[in-house]
């Protein structure tokens, strides 16, 4: 039995609250159980320097955690004077994942910045960020479409993400913090609405894992992501 | 007429939502209209170095804004590698204000850190932070009292804050962003529940102001803060 | 009796030594008793980026303390890799105060930087900086006028500043360091030559203060600033 | 045909030159074709703070690239004042990979730091770092064993890593820089000598990939890593 | 003829004003013509970590320039977030020079920090710093002797420094800024009161120089330093 | 007898391995005994800002040490967030030395960056860097000449460097680390192929040194550098 009493393939309650922010072109407060992330998408009129003159735009992401989003208060990264390795790693992953479903030619020489700020953390902040970030991005693109800044095909597909792990010898979906702490293997999957893989990251926390373990985790993830994509579709529908 | 259609002495709708955070010892989501600040109070078992051996504790505050809490996206301070002068100035003010109503001897050699993170900004983030920070601090002290870490008198009084300004020649209370941008004089007042002044900061934005102007602003502030203290009392009552 | 033996409304000996620096367009070594600040005004041919194309210039200030300007040696901010919150707060105050009496349109797209470096500290470094900074600024504008870079009206008025506090139950003017350490309330006032208020900052160090306290401090400040403005006028006359 | 003319499952020439450094307790210059990484393992007599008193040690890694290890000169990270996200991500991966095969209890409260410095880069620097880092680590542990600092079982298994990708529609092993730039999917696998998976990271560079793609890449990687483990065994044999 | 009209072996007017600072244990405002440096010596009760337990103390120096000490305003190093290479190089030189004449055993496990802050620069700031720093150090040691913290022999000798250069084909002493800008070779010499060399640094600015050139510069420097040592002796006599 | 058993005027075995790097326009692995430095010269198409429009180019150097190039592992400067004073001092010296033999007009508005990275350190890293850096620079200029980017006279002469010291009362050439630690005086000389002096730096480590000492060191250095210049000529011949 999982500490959370959930079935192995059961997601936590997920909600996607659009338009949470008054200012952003697109925004979504995403909740995976007690993990709450505010995602905002901001449209900027400049593409990064290395893309100037190419006609292409860019989608980037930034990630942060409020100091007391976690059980123990963490030091504020701005006070430390730098973003930690984990932060940089996660925001690079979110950015890659979202870019996988955007036609960068279509958005022109602009940059959309998706900020994912963790209000409360209970495991799975990066997968919630990708899943909710897609909604914010969707709405920012809709905002642009309304103003004639992009055409229809800028957003190519859904993208969503979920974590899986091996807990007590069993593959389980969507680990919360206490499950994650005890999991033997920890994996994150990012997939598109059509089921294509965008990113797979699996890490042995203790003993190494096998090909079969990875297959089992991937099967679970596929099911979870299908559900998340449905929820995204409902949210923006 | 104020852009916000409010009467000169009318606060925006204020709400103080306690226990917003699952992890913090005390927390409060404070809303002054469209200004939303998440305040968490974290109890740490170490007082700052310069207080060690004195038997005294410390209350400090940190302040931050989410990058898209504002109309235009701001650069993330952690990515810039430093907190700006405005941030440092505000968090020093919040810390001083909260310390004014805490008996530092009573909390022992501990530190309570009040984090004020602006989720959405529309003027008055520092006054909202002080007002909501007091609720978070109150609850953290209650949490400590329940565990026998402090006695009853650690929290000496309420403290709350409000901004005032001269807008279109008239003294008005609790400026939102658009009023603040046009105000000729901008002032922040911090007062205790008993009406004592803790901090007065008044700045001429254009033409200098007179003693009478300052008196008028102070009278408004006094009324507003009395109302905020009532709301605090209801929230924690 | 004040530790300094001064009457409650008595300033320390003040001197304003113009042209202290061989290189700067304007400079002043200001002394408020044992507090000595070197103020230099440097004329730069570029306005900040956000003012380009507006025809307006800018006046900004920077503040620093020599490591052994204080009783205990302080760490050098350049060695620490950042300016502290107090430094940033003070230089923002100096900048705002000086801008209050300059016609930014008149100086064209240039920037005047007033550096206030504390050679020796004994309380009141920010008020000395504003008072002496005005002299340096005056002389830099005179230097510009001589070269036809500005007309006559660029400097609109005097601006000067003084601290007040409540010491031993009595309102006193121009606190030195030992008085400041014991003062119950600490306030800084910035006023123009015509007596308009530019900035009021009052902070309760221990018990809160009352409206009457603030009034008493303001009355003292008004007298002191009138005297400082006279000294400025003599210095540049 | 691959640009490198290699068969799809063909590694570049690999060499592992032990004892390259006169000073380090263990060292290895690893070459995967034109990718050359100097790995040194340094034994320190202190475990990180959060492990003190647990009897456990730590293995950590740091990664860097010489400024002209790449085709275009890169800015030196020490001159920029921070390590980039890619650097931090890679050194975290190397550290996790090496820890997977070390009994941290066995090394006592010490830290072994494996520095991986890229002398010349041509793709696959992180996989070469892990593969060569294991040799350096092996020799540092042997050095410790000779001095009675650890027993025999501290090093539990081999660990090695290889990249794979889909190039021109075909799964290929050990991509060099020019292949990597054109690859549609890019994956890194870390496995132990016994064939257990330690880390899988697969990223779609353009179109998403399928489960079958991942299986094909994993099969290739398995073959390549078996070969690398043989080379490690020969090197330290 | 030198631009300064001085004879080739003529120093600028030099003054050493002791006790310039109210707070420091030793201080000296040194003037080499228009180069003015405030030197303060601060006695700290802790030796650096790597000397703890050795019974030895340390003498270190820090160097800074006020932003408008120079003809063009320089950016403040604290605002830039780091000390430049020139600053670090100079303060290392000053520290080494002063340590050469102090018995570090005699001062016990303490650190004396000599801060050299350039109030106004006109060439030769490092040589003025060493020369004036010695006076500040002398007085700090006298302060310690008075309190029984050191015995008589802590200060072993004088140390002073001067620059020389080849200007218009001729070796000249104590270059001011305009001479320094045109000098073909630039050298700094540090010598003790007994005439021993502590440091020689000579740099070709344009064409290389010869052994004879260096000899000529050294002879001039020897004469200049003898004079500076006399002035030091008078100052502290 | 020297610890290294070398004659007083005997260099360590020196080798200059050209073309060590696949990517750089010029490169050289220089070995002075166990001191190994990789020098690469990178041609950039932009001169520094302050030279734009002058038609002149620039040669600059950067210096770094791998963390375990030394006997004790050093902290990585990129992880510390800044380059230390010693690093900055050395790279400034290398840059000045190389510029002394380049006609900056001839290379046009370009910058050549010579990176000197210490792979293994055993004393004399700065002198090895200058000596090997010249070879890398030579080859980068040859690369430019082949492409018609410079004419023949861009490289005016050789430049090389060597350390000397007084060890056990005797002047000795090319100190290794253990000799350097015990040396009473430590000097570095930089000379051109024609024997002109570019830089002399001599430092008393304990007792001051005399003019005669300096002369003796210089004579040794002259002999050593003549030999290094021969080796350079052979390497590029």
From TrEMBL, chains A, B, C, D, E, F:
One Pfam family this sequence matches: RNase_PH_C
BP terms from Gene Ontology: rRNA 3'-end processing; rRNA catabolic process; tRNA processing
Highest taxon of the lineage: Bacteria
EC code: 2.7.7.56
Gene Ontology molecular function terms on file: 3'-5'-RNA exonuclease activity; tRNA binding; tRNA nucleotidyltransferase activity
Record PROSITE patterns: RIBONUCLEASE_PH
Residues holding phosphate: 86, 124-126
Keywords: Nucleotidyltransferase, RNA-binding, rRNA processing, Transferase, tRNA processing, tRNA-binding
Family (UniProt): Belongs to the RNase PH family.
UniProt function note: Phosphorolytic 3'-5' exoribonuclease that plays an important role in tRNA 3'-end maturation. Removes nucleotide residues following the 3'-CCA terminus of tRNAs; can also add nucleotides to the ends of RNA molecules by using nucleoside diphosphates as substrates, but this may not be physiologically important. Probably plays a role in initiation of 16S rRNA degradation (leading to ribosome degradation) during starvation.
Name used for this protein in its record: Ribonuclease PH
Classification lineage: Bacteria, Pseudomonadati, Pseudomonadota, Alphaproteobacteria, Hyphomicrobiales
